[in-house]
Amino acid sequence: MGIAALVFDLDGTLVDSAEDIAEAINRSLEELSLSRVSEATVRSWIGEGVRRLVAIALAHAGSERTPDEVMPLFMRHYHDCLLRSPRLYDGVADALQQLQARGLPMAICTNKPSALVPPLLAHLGIAGYFAHIVGGDTLPQRKPSPEPVLHAARLLGRAPAQCLMVGDSATDLEAANAAGMPIALVRYGYPRDLDLDAAGAVAVIDDMRELLAGV
């Protein structure tokens, strides 16, 4: 593919964190005397940032509270649940090691609040692979805006067309397309209603190690 750098989404791409995000949402709902929801339901909400996640959860529960009111409560639970049970998807650690050995610089571009990213990466043993982190609050915009993806490319010192975005959702796809950055999509993760095979990605993969043949 002639790729000189990689930009990775985090949740649903490198890390399965849905159980912990769901628990943070459910602890928040319980504290508001609202009903818990299933992990599968929360998985379908992940990908557009925490404020949107909270807004969807409140609407689903029929609450009249605003996301602004609930965000401090949710962020407390999000911090508490961050390291409960996250896991790397199969092949991720091996792929990152081999990509780094090839001298390819890598960055994270996620809608997760930036303060939560380093402890999660450290907990999972992959912090050393990433030169830069662009979080959901690094810029005024977040994915699906192209600006975070473009910012990651600038930090890596590469043109967007020289980078490969790796993600799992329509949010990643829209951001990469608008940035002029090729994208590979994973079949696992939180794709919601995205038709992966019709998305126009340069690759759709089942295991991160499949990237190694194309970069």
TrEMBL record:
<feature type="binding site">
    <location>
        <position position="11"/>
    </location>
    <ligand>
        <name>Mg(2+)</name>
    </ligand>
</feature>
<dbReference type="InterPro" id="IPR037512">
    <property type="entry name" value="PGPase_prok"/>
</dbReference>
<dbReference type="Pfam" id="PF00702">
    <property type="entry name" value="Hydrolase"/>
</dbReference>
<feature type="binding site">
    <location>
        <position position="168"/>
    </location>
    <ligand>
        <name>Mg(2+)</name>
    </ligand>
</feature>
<protein>
    <recommendedName>
        <fullName>Phosphoglycolate phosphatase</fullName>
        <ecNumber>3.1.3.18</ecNumber>
    </recommendedName>
</protein>
<dbReference type="GO" id="GO:0046295">
    <property type="term" value="P:glycolate biosynthetic process"/>
</dbReference>
<dbReference type="InterPro" id="IPR023198">
    <property type="entry name" value="PGP-like_dom2"/>
</dbReference>
<comment type="function">
    <text>Specifically catalyzes the dephosphorylation of 2-phosphoglycolate. Is involved in the dissimilation of the intracellular 2-phosphoglycolate formed during the DNA repair of 3'-phosphoglycolate ends, a major class of DNA lesions induced by oxidative stress.</text>
</comment>
<feature type="binding site">
    <location>
        <position position="9"/>
    </location>
    <ligand>
        <name>Mg(2+)</name>
    </ligand>
</feature>
<keyword id="KW-0119">Carbohydrate metabolism</keyword>
<dbReference type="InterPro" id="IPR036412">
    <property type="entry name" value="HAD-like_sf"/>
</dbReference>
<dbReference type="InterPro" id="IPR006439">
    <property type="entry name" value="HAD-SF_hydro_IA"/>
</dbReference>
<dbReference type="GO" id="GO:0046872">
    <property type="term" value="F:metal ion binding"/>
</dbReference>
<dbReference type="GO" id="GO:0005829">
    <property type="term" value="C:cytosol"/>
</dbReference>
<dbReference type="GO" id="GO:0005975">
    <property type="term" value="P:carbohydrate metabolic process"/>
</dbReference>
<comment type="pathway">
    <text>Organic acid metabolism; glycolate biosynthesis; glycolate from 2-phosphoglycolate: step 1/1.</text>
</comment>
<keyword id="KW-0460">Magnesium</keyword>
<keyword id="KW-0378">Hydrolase</keyword>
<feature type="active site" description="Nucleophile">
    <location>
        <position position="9"/>
    </location>
</feature>
<keyword id="KW-0479">Metal-binding</keyword>
<dbReference type="InterPro" id="IPR023214">
    <property type="entry name" value="HAD_sf"/>
</dbReference>
<dbReference type="GO" id="GO:0006281">
    <property type="term" value="P:DNA repair"/>
</dbReference>
<dbReference type="GO" id="GO:0008967">
    <property type="term" value="F:phosphoglycolate phosphatase activity"/>
</dbReference>
<dbReference type="InterPro" id="IPR050155">
    <property type="entry name" value="HAD-like_hydrolase_sf"/>
</dbReference>
<comment type="similarity">
    <text>Belongs to the HAD-like hydrolase superfamily. CbbY/CbbZ/Gph/YieH family.</text>
</comment>
